[in-house]
Specification:
heterodimer; A: alpha/beta; Rossmann fold; three-stranded parallel β-sheet; 12 strands; B: alpha/beta; 2 domains; five-stranded parallel β-sheet; 18 strands
Chain lengths: 256, 326
Amino acid sequence: MKLVPDTNADKRIDAGTRRLVRTGVETVLNPFDEYAIEAALQLRDKLADGSTVTIVSMAPESGKEIVRKALAMGADDAVMLSDPGLAGSDVWGTAYALAAGIRATGFDLVLCGTQSTDANTGELPGALAEYLGVPGLTYVRELSVEAGRVRVKRETETGYQTLSAPTPALVSVTKSANEPRYPSLKGIMGAKKKEIKMLALTDLALVKPVGGDGAKTEVVDLAAPPARAKGKTVTAADGADGARQIVEFLKERKLL
Amino acid sequence: MKNVIAFIEHKNGSARRVSLEAATAARTIADALGGKAHAVVAGAGAKAIAETLKAYPLDAIHVLDDASVDKLLDPAVDALESVAKAVGPSLVLVGNTMIGRDVGSRCAARLDAGMTSDVVEFKTDGGRVSCVSPKLGGLTITTCAFRNTEYGVATIRPNVFTAKQSTGAGEIVAIAPSGKTYAVTLEEDVDEAAAELGVEEASVVVSGGRGMGGPEPFKTILKELADAFGGAVGASRAAVDAGWVSHSHQVGQTGKTVSPQLYLAVGISGAIQHKVGMRTAQTIVAINKDGGVPIGEFADLLVVGDAFAIVPELAKQVRDLKAAHA
């Protein structure tokens, strides 16, 4: 899971460092990741075979409180990849480092959100599956695990596919999959005792350099978008009048 | 990187428009870099698609025509990876679509490539490629360059680049099958909405919000208006959260980002959550019963009135106009 600025906060990129400003903005759990956590909890409870749910997040140590919220939802423990040397990682470096952290932890199934509300690239799940060397099933709205295989309904732009693959595998979960639970008071209390294991760069034994130095992309320019001017407001006397005014406007703009 | 490779998505025997936009952009960038423009097309009927691609300015069209690997991502990733490795240092272009993001990111991991997303413009100053993308829902325009790598993968925003036909040499080259056994099994592929255009790709999006009051308008008046324009139906988070329409239609921060020529917001107040998903539309027209809604601050035209009366009438007038021009 990823830590992101609050969905409704006014986000900006620092003109000097060219990184997202994370100070003064409330940090929250990436809303897309809540569906993955909920899917993991439901699967664990359904399997009831001793399977456990571990939260994995790459974030500064100050992000512990957010990770604890995921533990309060019901996850068993957590692993944080936390090291100043990871700061400034791009999608490539994030996927590469996360894969190492997840491998070190051990897994049968990796569940993740489809994208984040900040960078919003949607590129992490695919890259992560590759670096883990496992089948990647993305945009999933239903999943089940049986006899060492994961079976999913994967959303497409026009419908869905039913796919299956042997575990270990990676699945990215969409908003249609479930309704994420709110942590209960008992969950919140219990989360305080759960383990958050901290992994530093030295624990990951990465071969390639990551962080800002190893990144394969760099921001070379930042600009404010051209402001959208306030347009005109008209009142429709009735349906036909409203429609006529829109048609006239669209004709002026050569859209009709 | 000198060469540019466009990954071609296709369905029902036609290349997707965003892929043709990628093919055209590939030519422009390759010319600026002094390299070649390639395309990769894989799956059932790929050969026939390749023939149609000859109308676009490509130097080579690489084809894996194999029905057995149709609709699966892994073989497409293998095909793209093998072409990229054969071509050498290159920029790979995919659509910023569900398939494009998957194929692009996976191929990038194999090539240890830099990844940029939602690109709306490429710059090639001094032979170095940089990618311009609106970030944080269009709050900033970010330009990213590649470094520490010989490969770059960019997902391009649909509807921004122009697909233009012109004669290219268009040599067709067969891609050798990978010979791999794939772990993922496709059991079924179901179309729920026949030939429905996705909101990300549509040049006209008609979106409904809380003011629609229920699921019906999404299937009736909004659909009818979208059809009249040849566009797609979108929705605000409020409408999706109420269960009126599926999440695949959602425009906004927790949904999709769209840049159509025309965005029609019906019964949508225009909160920041929604605004960031559609503020880069070329023209925004809003219909709302309340003249004081936030969308009035950035829409090109806000019509204050009864959407349930205006929308069906607008659909009729648009249909009549189109019929008169046909």
